[in-house]
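Researcher: Good morning. I'm working through a list of sequences from a screen, and I'd like to move beyond sequence-only analysis. For each chain I'm collecting a predicted structure so we can compare shapes side by side. This is the next one on the list. No need for commentary yet; just the structure.
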Amino acid sequence: MRSTQDKDISIIWTSFLMKVVGLWLAADRNEQFRRDFALIYTVSALFISVCMACRDIYYTWGNLRECVFIVCNILYVAMVLLKIGILYSHKMEFFKLVTFTQQNFWRPHQDPQEMIILTGCKKVCTVTIIIISFCCQGSCAGYLISPLIGNMGKNESDRALPFNLWVDFPVSLSPYFEILFTIQILCVYHVGICYICFDNFLCIVNFHVASQFRILQYRLKNLHNVIKVQLNDQESDTKVSRYANACYIKLKNCVQLHQMLTEYCLKLENIFTIIVLGHVMFLAIVICLLGFQLFLADTPPSKKVSLVLNLGGTFFQFLMFTYSCDNLIRQSVDVGNAVFSGPWANLPMDKVGTVVRKNLIIVIMRSHRVCSLTAGGFFPISLETYTAVLSTAMSYFTLLKRSSDVEDT
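Model: Good morning. Structure tokens for this chain:
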């Protein structure tokens, strides 16, 4: 039987993007060499992007509309550098986490109801990854199409690159123009890949961990079905005690799964908490700057299509990320509610039955300490974070609009 990860489009595509960046597992020395080469290429593309953006903003300082466009690009590169730097510093922990995820979460289950839960999770992840990837490709294509349309009908000496270089060099002449144009577009696409791949991975993991909590709830609720069938044929106190022992063994497995999930969430928090904090801090500014370029600046129509996809992809990506974190919180809390549907009322008041009841109380108490992903330990990420970021972005947008009106007058 093929594993779930071999058939899940979201997992296949996300792992491919992580391999392109250079931060993924390697099976042998040759694969490790390819990963190292990809990571070097990633760092080189980011370095070139930073140099071009910093030089561009230096020469265009004072022009609000041009500076907004450049600052938005710098923020994207800054977020990517933060994610790669943090993840590379936790590289071994991250690889262990991926290996553990592949062995325990991305695998088939025998129970039909558990397979239904995983199938639903797979559909949500697939739709999320497809929409985010489409918006990212459309945004990157805007950097390619806009200068091509703008250069139509121009002489060779007047051609413009996607990003200004500000060098005393005939960059508009062939073959320098074609070479520099290709380098800039490759950098754009690589920054786009780096920007979405880490968030995609984290979003998929959140959904799968939440699904594991749902499977745990199902197992806790399903305990009484097995026990009830056996209790219908009970003839003596010995059988009741044997049923209680069977329930205790099943509950022990559920407790072990619950402990594994809580420990997994702590490891996930330790690796990604700073990345999440930086992403939330930058995102309100990015949304504001994208809105300014789309609604207030004199942006070419070809570029507006790219900005619409960029803004829509940013909204959807952050919505699904906060939804996955919110789903993780709710499913971890619902474990305590699922305990009440267990077989505790049918158990005898002997030693084993008392131990099972005490363990159920411990599970309920532990479920009140929710499993969540926080932004640097300051606050948990949930759907409330999404609305708070949008509110902050709207405030920044209003302030930027007033600055633009003052500049025009």
